[in-house]
Every structure is written in C-alpha cells, then in structure tokens.
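Dear colleague,

Thank you for sharing your sequence with our group. We've completed the structure prediction you requested, and as agreed, I am returning the results in plain text so they can be pasted directly into your records. Please verify that the sequence below matches your submission; if there's any discrepancy, let me know and we will rerun it promptly.
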Amino acid sequence: AALVLLRRFGGSLVPRQVFSRTPSAGAALATVGACVVMYATVTVLPVRLAELGASTTKVAFIVGLAAIGWVAGSAVTGNVVAKHGYRLPMVIGSVALAGSTVLSATGELPWLAGAGAGLGTGAVTAATLALIQDQAPGEQLGVATAAATMLRNVGAAMGVNGIATLSAILATSSAHAGNSAFWALTAVVAVAVFLPALFAPRQRRIKQ
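Please find the predicted structure tokens below.
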C-alpha cells in the first residue's frame, strides 16, 4: 500500500520510474523482497537457535556472518555488474536467499543460512541499486539513491514485523511455526526476488 501511495503522490520525492513498469520497478520489488528475507532471518533464526539451547556466542556469530555476508556480497557485486550486467548477480543472490530460507526452515547448517542471507541480500541490493541509479536521469541520481535506501527500509520493516506476526499466527495452529514461516519466506524469494531477476536487463545501460 505504501508503494502505491508513493507512486501516486510522491511527486519529486521519488522518481516515478522507480514504481512504473520499467526495469527499475522490478529492481524495487527485488530490493524489498531481499531485505524482507534478510531481516526476518536475523530476527527469527537467533530466537529459534536460543530456544534449542544455542549459546549466545553461537547466535552472535551467525548474526555476524549475515552482516559480513551483506558487505562482502555488495563489494563483489559491484565488479560483477560492471562486467556482466544486472541479471547475473540478481539471480545468484536470489538463489543464495532461497538456500538460506530452506536451511532455516529445515534447521540445517544455521551458520550457512545466516551467511547465505547476507551474501544474497548484498548481491541483490547492490545490483538493484545500480539498476535504479542507471535508469534515473542524471539530475535525479541523488533522489533515486534515496529511493533505493527507502526500499531497503521498507523491506526491513516488513521482514521484522511480518515474520513476527506470521510466526505468532502459525504458533496457534502448529508446533513448527518457525519452520512454516521460513517456508513462506522461500515463496517470497521466488515471487519477489527471483522473478524480477529473470526479467532484469542482461547488460548494464546507463540512462543519459
């Protein structure tokens, strides 16, 4: 709903092409989707691990892997976008995010789930940031960058609040609420991240 309102009334605050039917619109959706998964993972996975008896050190290590993974994924993706365009890093990032949600849902290799969430989010958001910036007119570059940051914040809010709400709802009907919530995140990756990645431009094109 917030995206619809911004698209209609945002005016000069947000470049309209970010929310129109252009490559930037897909990038906007993928940005939100990736951040939903990232923040949901670092919110719920540590709680589940603590319930299973994991030490505070182990939980902190996994959260740290997610944060470092985001930084590393972003750093590597910059060169990948320059050489291979937007689609490749977005697809790779979405696969990493999907793997992370599956591992979280099954309870296997939580350290790899955390690292995958970070690396996948870093790859996707760095590629989508470049795409949104490249599609924006030169005089709106700063506004486009701010819009990308806002989309990350929207995804973070949706991830934290959405996973908490979903887990609470599922807890009333299932003993495996956390698992079901992470399977729902797998669907989010497929629809909101992987599909936009498939339709992202192969080559980098800077709008003049």
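Summary note from our side: The first helix runs from residue 2 to 9.

Kind regards,
the structure core
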